[in-house]
Amino acid sequence: MSESTGIENDDAAGGPVHPESMAGGAAEGLRSRCRAALGSWDERLDPVIERDPGYAGAFVALAEEAAAGPLSAQAKTLVLLACDAAMTYRNRESLPARIQGALDAGVPPEGVLEVLELVSVLGVHALNVGLSIALEEYADGESPEAPPAAQARVRERFERLRGYWDAGWQPVLAHLPGFLDRYIDFSAASGRHGVLDAKTRELVLIAIDAAGTHLYAPGIRIHVRNARAHGATLAEIVQVFELLSLMGVESCLLGVPLLNAAGHP
């Protein structure tokens, strides 16, 4: 999933659209351009086009620029799908279009399911962050570590199934090896579908950690490192960040319909 999109951003195919250019089929043109760039259209953009076509055109041009990188159409749709489905965003309104966009791009249903299951691992960051803080606050109390043999067994399983060890897991390994053992199985369960290659899985994990609704720096670093080990280029990783930058439009997708409903044209 790494061929170029081939999207050009000249006056004919891209560039901001100003209010005076919205006559006729210009609105449908924006929809078509957005679908071509991102693989889907969020109908909540329609009120934004009506209210401020210049802004809508600028957003579509930005989306085209973000899409015009080395990631394949499938990879782009899966990155966007992952962010919409992640527990830190849970964008129910645009998720149906994202799923359909992935299917239209040729991702089989099992691939969509694999992404949904893969991003469910995000919940464990409550433990990654919280346990270290709790252990620091209770440093003067009882915080016994698990026996070394139990820790060694679980770490060996982690390294064998994941192909790496992240020191960020050490507090969990030391104090909750049983939970980490079960988490290894849970986090690996999505891989049994076998649709996504290792690089694409890491790009999806980069996306949910780097999204503006999460920004989990330790996870970004380890998954960038893993993606590189699986052949991802810097340009592919940077394009993931570009696509995530489009999430900010949600402010208008939520707010403009409410402004219209307030009766102020």
From TrEMBL:
<keyword id="KW-0560">Oxidoreductase</keyword>
<dbReference type="Pfam" id="PF02627">
    <property type="entry name" value="CMD"/>
</dbReference>
<dbReference type="InterPro" id="IPR029032">
    <property type="entry name" value="AhpD-like"/>
</dbReference>
<keyword id="KW-0575">Peroxidase</keyword>
<dbReference type="GO" id="GO:0051920">
    <property type="term" value="F:peroxiredoxin activity"/>
</dbReference>
<protein>
    <submittedName>
        <fullName>Alkylhydroperoxidase/carboxymuconolactone decarboxylase family protein YurZ</fullName>
    </submittedName>
</protein>
<feature type="region of interest" description="Disordered">
    <location>
        <begin position="1"/>
        <end position="26"/>
    </location>
</feature>
<feature type="domain" description="Carboxymuconolactone decarboxylase-like">
    <location>
        <begin position="177"/>
        <end position="243"/>
    </location>
</feature>
<dbReference type="InterPro" id="IPR003779">
    <property type="entry name" value="CMD-like"/>
</dbReference>
